[in-house]
Amino acid sequence: MNKDIRTHESKLNLIKKFLDYVYFDNASYAMLYYIQENTKYDKKQ
């Protein structure tokens, strides 16, 4: 039974890490999009 609990905990930890990477990736993409849009705006002026 202990093995099942550890396996479950390790799967949860893996999912948490994966979600952290996804959130970071989304934030990075949003930041790059914002920078790209501002660059286009600056070039027009």
Can you give a write-up of this model?
This protein has 45 residues and is mainly α. 96% of the residues lie in helices and 0% in strands. The chain is rod-shaped.
Give the ordered list of helices and strands: H
Name the shape in a single word: rod-shaped
Largest sheet: none
* CA gyration radius, whole angstroms: 20 Å
List keywords for this structure.
mainly alpha; 45 residues
Write a compact overview of the structure shown:
This protein is 96% helix and 0% strand.
Which SSEs are present, and which pair or pack?
Layout: H1 2-44
